[in-house]
Amino acid sequence: MPYAEAYREHIMYTFNGFCKTIIRFAAINAWRDRSRRRQKEISLEYLTEEKFYPLGTTDEYFEAPYEEYPITVCGQTVILTNEELAAALLSLPEKKREIIFLYFFGHYTQQEIGEMYGRCRSTAWHHIHSALQMLQKELEELSHEES
Questions:
Q1: 38-47 residue pLDDT tens
Q2: 66 has pLDDT over 80
Q3: What are phi and psi of 79, to 5 degrees?
């Protein structure tokens, strides 16, 4: 009888060690995946920081350097300096605009956005991705209209 008890205890400790190892490596893989994704992401702030400097200089003391285009999303106002980007964002549906605001300007993670809307992380990613595709399509249409 004592051998069966010892064997059962050995199996339990072995299984616990196995589970801890699996959980540890799953956490390491998740951390690596997240850091890889963060390295590939480009913020929308990069698009708003485009500034074109003229080759010559003139005195422009009383002129604002850039026109400002305020957009109100989620009760907060974001000021953009790119007219096309502001127009494209305003043409998006309200929910898509909110998701883009939360992800790029609010710096929320996909998991946090999913929890806000009662969805999972992958659904939040799908909404962010589709919003960016709609935004790209709108920007392309606006650039074709100018030409």
A1: 888 776 665 5
A2: no
A3: -105, 120
Residue 80 identity: L
Tokens of 1: 């009888």
Q: What contacts 68, CB < 8 A, 6 or more positions away? A: 79, 80, 81
The sign of the dihedral angle between the CA atoms of 111, 75, 136, 69 is negative
Beta strands in 23-103 (DSSP E): 69-73, 76-80
CA dist., res. 138 & res. 88, Å (int): 5
What is the pLDDT of the chain when averaged over all its residues?
83
The conformation of residue 52, written as its DSSP 8-state character, comes to -
Element (H, E) at 137: helix 121-146
What is residue 102's DSSP assignment? Answer: I
62-147: CATH number:
1.10.10.10
End-to-end CA distance of the chain: 88
pLDDT at 59 over 80: no
d(CA 144, CA 34): 36
User: Using CA of residue 89, residue 43, residue 142, residue 96, what is the dihedral sign?
Assistant: negative
Specify the higher pLDDT residue, 48 or 137: 137
Phi, psi of 54 (to 5 degrees): -70, 155
